[in-house]
Structures are given as C-alpha cells and as structure tokens.
Amino acid sequence: MGRCGAALCLALEGNIAVGKSTFLKLLGATFPEWHLVTEPVAQWQKVPAGGTAEASVGSANLLQMMYQEPARWSYTFQTFSCLSRLKAMLELPPERFPGTPHPVRVFERSIYSDRYVFAKNLFEAGHLQPLEWAIYQDWHGFLLRQLGPRAALHGFLYLRAMPRTCLERLRRRARSEEGGIQLGYLQQLHGQHERWLVEKTTEVHFADVKHAPVLVLDVDKDFEHDAAAQGVLMAQVEAFATALRAQTLPSCPNPL
Ligand SMILES: Nc1ncnc2c1ncn2[C@@H]1O[C@H](COP(=O)(O)OP(=O)(O)OP(=O)(O)O)[C@@H](O)[C@H]1O
Ligand SMILES: Nc1nc(=O)c2ncn([C@H]3C[C@H](O)[C@@H](CO)O3)c2[nH]1
After folding, report:
1. Tens digit of pLDDT for each residue in 106-118?
2. Where on this chain does substrate bind (predicted)?
3. Residue pair 35/7 in contact by the 8 Å Cβ criterion
4. What is the atom index within ligand 1 of the atom nearest the CA of 219?
C-alpha cells in the first residue's frame, strides 16, 4: 500500500438479495473509471465436474447442492467460493489507458465475508463440522498471511436492510437455487454482518481488515427507481473513497 498509482480496494458487503448487483450497476454508471468485480456466482452454478479421459461428467451446480444438502456440501462450497474470490482479487485489472490504473476497485463480497459471515454461520448452524471449520480457518489464515498486502482491502461498503426486505427482494428475483431460503437464514446472515462490520464483536484475524473503515448504507427503501436516493448514496460513497484514499494512499495525487 502507499505505492503511487495503486488502486483503492473496497468490498461491497450485504445480505442475500439486499441489492449488491443493483448497487454495483449504479456505481458503474456514476464512476465509469472504477473497476467493479461481480461475485462469481455463475462459476458456482457450473463447476466443471471432471470425469475420466473416456467420459466427462459435465458440470455440477454447487450452489444448488449446498442449499439442498448443506451438511454434505458446505465445506466444498466454501473452499470453492473462497478460491474463486481470491482469484478475482489477484487477477490484474485491465488498464484504463497505458500507465493509468483504475483509481478504485470494488469487489462484490470478499474472502473476508466468505469466512466471517458465511462459513462462520454454517459452522454455528452445524453444517460445517468442527474439523472442517478448523481446516478452513487454517488454510484461509495461512494463505492470507502469505499474500499480505495483496489480499488486503482498504474499506468496506455495507448495504444494510431488514431481513424481511431482503426476503421480499429474493422472492421477487426468484433465483431457482434459492427457493428454500427462509427468513431465519437471512436473519442469521444479517446478525453475522452486524457483528462483523458494525458491532465489531466477531474476532477478525487480520489487523488491516479488522481496522478497515466501514461505510454503512441504508438500502431498506427502494433506491432502484429513485434518482434522488441514488444521488445521496453515490455522494456518500464518493466522500468515503476520497477520505480513505487520502488516509491510506497519501502519496498518490491521483484524483478519483
Ligand atoms: N433498493 C432496492 N429497492 C427495491 N428493489 C431492489 C433494490 N435493490 C435491488 N432490488 C431488487 O431486489 C432484487 C435483488 O437485487 P440484487 O440482485 O441486486 O441483489 P444482490 O444483493 O446482488 O443478491 P445476491 O446476494 O444474491 O448476490 C432484484 O430483483 C432487484 O431488482
Ligand atoms: N454458503 C455460502 N457461502 C458463501 O460464501 C456465499 N456467497 C454467496 N452465497 C450465496 C448467496 C446467494 O444465494 C448466492 C449469490 O450471492 O450465493 C454464499 N453461500
């Protein structure tokens, strides 16, 4: 960090169907020079399942398998989701113009919500065995410590809405794998986000990320069809990114 020309790296966090993809599109329209990285959900729905040299077994929908049989597939899911997030984070972004990096990169969720929201919740719900949770934490901690600043984020944007609002949006969107999701699951995930990003009672094992600033954005109301509400949200994000850039990358004169 502190290297001139380096991008400010943020993660966009929040409950299922709170509106992260919608918000990311709005960020793209408002800040076209920013680099936005969507969650690799399509990869989870179509995992090349290998097979033998003679016969390929095609692909597997790991997202569906995890929801249908969580005790069997949660560990597999968390290894794959975390790996896919890490690859997306380490992949070099395309340069805007030669020698001009993106001033800001925003990732939809992160290797940190993978652990401190989802995997933790699956463990507490009994879907990850203590041994699986211990092994997950062991390789997660080892990998991230080895990667050091390459795996760090400068701040978090937390989209917050009531779990009931998320359930309504989830039902309206009707992604086939999510048909069995009940309010209780969204309440659990809401609690995990709150303890991690607001109350700060979740034990976080990486100092940078533990102290990274969090911008909480209330999206309980409809911003999708409200230009004024969109303007307020975008101004909040811009002010947050500007302050964070001055604080964490002080030697970079790059304006946002
Ligand atoms: N502020 C909002 N008000 C009303 N509806 C919204 C709002 N934001 C998003 N929606 C709608 O809610 C649904 C879910 O939104 P979206 O797909 O952006 O959620 P998400 O957080 O990206 O979901 P996931 O956690 O699965 O990645 C979509 O139908 C979207 O049109
Ligand atoms: N178990 C589990 N672990 C994760 O790290 C994770 N990240 C996202 N999801 C689920 C939520 C949406 O249904 C869908 C798209 O966000 O994928 C996850 N589920």
Report:
1. 999 999 999 999 9
2. 39, 67, 78, 109, 114, 178
3. yes
4. 1
| 8 Å CB contact between 95 and 35 | no
Q: What's the distance, Cα to Cα, between the start and end of the chain in Å?
A: 17
CB-ligand 1 contact for 223 (6 Å cutoff)? yes
Q: Is 255 part of a structural domain of the chain? A: no
Indicate which atom in ligand 1 lies nearest the CA of residue 159: 21
Which residue is catalytic, options 54, 95, 108, 124? Answer: 108
Q: Which residues of the chain have pLDDT under 70?
A: 1-5, 51-56, 250-256
Asked whether residue 1 is domain-assigned, the answer is no
What ipTM was estimated for this complex?
0.98
> Is 33 in the active site?
no
Task: Please identify, by atom number, the ligand 2 atom nearest to the C-alpha of residue 39.
Answer: 16
Q: What is the pLDDT of residues 121-178, one digit of tens each?
A: 999 999 999 999 999 999 999 999 999 999 999 999 999 999 999 999 999 999 999 9
Residue 59 lies in a domain: yes
Find the CATH number of the domain harbouring 77.
Answer: 3.40.50.300
User: Distance from the CA of 169 to the center of ligand 1, in angstroms?
Assistant: 6
* Total structural domains within the chain: 1
Q: Please report, as a single letter, which amino acid is at residue 186.
A: L
**CA–CA distance, 137 with 119 (Å, rounded to integer):** 9
Q: How far is the CA of 17 from the centre of ligand 1 (A)?
A: 5
pLDDT for the residue numbered 256? 67
C-alpha of residue 66 to centroid of ligand 2, in Å: 9
